[in-house]
Amino acid sequence: MTDKQLIKQLKMLKGLEAGGRIQGSWVMASKEILMNQIAPQRSDQPFKEQAQASDSIYYWQYFNNLFKAKVLQPALATLVIAALMLTYSATVSVANASLPGDMLYPVKTTQEAVQLALAVSDEKKVGLQMEFTSRRVNELNQLVRKDDSRAVKVRKINTTAQQISANVKSVQDKLNKISMAAAPNSDVAQVAKSVDEKTFELKQGINEASAGMSEEVKKEVAKDIEEAIINTDNTGTSALGVIVDKYQKGETKISDAEVSTRVAERIKSTELDIEQMSNVVQQVATSTVAAVGQVLNNNTTSTLQTIIDKPQQAKVMIEEAKDLLDQKNFGSALDKIQESQGIVAEVTQTVNTITPVLPTSGQILGTTTTAVIGAGLTPVQATGTQETSESTKTLIKTN
Amino acid sequence: MKNPLGKKILFLKVKNQDTAAYGQFYDLYIARIYRFIFFKINSVSDAQDLTSEVFLKLWQYIKEGREIRNLNAFIYVIARNIVIDFYRRKNQADYSINEKMALQTIDEQKDLLKEQIVSSEMQQLLRGLDNLKDEYKEVIVLKFLDELSIAEMAEALNKSKGAVRVLLHRAMKAIKENISEV
Questions:
Q1: Cβ pair B65, B148 in contact under 8 A
Q2: ipTM of predicted complex
Q3: In this predicted model, what pLDDT tens digit does every residue of A127-166 receive, in sequence order?
Q4: Whole-model pTM?
Q5: Helix axis angle, A150-181 relative to A215-249, nearest 10°?
Q6: What is the mean pLDDT of residues A244-265?
Q7: Is pLDDT above 90 for A170?
Q8: Are A116 and A129 a contacting pair, CB within 8 Å?
Q9: Among residues A55, A64, A195, which one has the least CA distance to residue A134?
Q10: Which of B8, B23, B145 sits opposite A35 (nearest CB)?
Q11: A48 HSE (CA, 13 A, CB side)
Q12: Are B125 and A9 in contact (CB under 8 A)?
């Protein structure tokens, strides 16, 4: 049986009582009963007039409801949405000035997260993350100056420094990913170049923040700050690696003069780090020797041995890098740079294991400006007074 | 009623306790409510009683001033509940449709034969319809016997229009199977 036939039959059913057709006589009777039940007795005439008069009321009511539903409600909804959007953007612009711990700070970070999520390509994400990291460095500087209690300040600084580390590491990963997967017409090296350039700025910013810290704070945040710097350096060098790699493969428009400049800058920066490291090692050595009267475990002495030669090794390596640069052998130059950076990092961390053992210890960290490590490493008496001579204080530009 | 605006105005009046309007409303809905109940009860006299009850109950709701969003949907809710109560009272929840049919159609057929001859074809159709599950039966009755639109059916059954169409499609399939088996 087709649908059509079936429907036809069903419709025929309609007319049968067996198909639920109602009995007309019953309808009339039951209606009368119902009307008597629901309405009190009234004379018909005025009732009819009343009915006619009120019809217009109902039309009015109907169109009123319709208007409310179709016009007012949507309009109201639009207004509400517009107000919300305005409030949101106002909040965001105020939030941009906030620091960790402030009420609106989460708004700032959420906004950043949203921006990141909306960024379509990895290149864009890298750009955004560098921007955000630079904000973190600014916040770091502001936090140092802010009037918080020491514990609070330390916590906030540590968190921010950790965030910086995380960000730059992420940038490094993404950059590597892009460079491997890159389509030939996209210039990944340009992205890498801006990352490389920016890492110098970041590092400088972190060092400035560090310089502004009080001694106690500096001690407690040393580890995280150091890591932030090391990671920033690594990201920068890694970015440089991408530039060199793409240059060698001929996959970039960057000129060899520009590549040269970038490598040279990196060498310069590393040289400063080495210089500073060798000062530190020297200080540690002298103070250790001078503090012979203090408790020195075997561990410390042997560790000292391992780091004494390192500065020289690093210096040799960086000279080699310079030569390779002159020969335009960028790849090998970069390798040397990385090797020497490795030494610096190693020494830094080693020194940190020694210095806590000494009666007073400052924190040793790399800087881009020439630094003299002062306060904290002066030979000390048993009473352990921490005295810093005025001259050394002014020379301190540690982070 | 092909006059949707007029219908809406009528509903407004009814909600405002306009008795004359209620009378018109009654005229409009009596047949379909009766049929709706009849196909669940299968007894003319019981269906009539229950139908009257529905209209009375609805008026009570209106009188109480309770808010009714959708009159069309609401009256079916009342009708459905009244049928449920009826079965509870009669304690016939366990009876299958078939048994109900057996109990009652014999009487019905006797009544009907007085008024009209029910062809065997129609009987077959009726049985096929009755053997359907409730959902399917409802949509077929509403669509082809009461001739409601999909929108009206959706309101009455508290489903989406899409759901109604799917149900209808499946119901047609089921009834065809039923008929071919019989």
A1: no
A2: 0.78
A3: 999 999 999 999 999 999 888 888 899 999 999 999 999 9
A4: 0.52
A5: 10
A6: 88
A7: yes
A8: yes
A9: A195
A10: B23
A11: 3
A12: yes
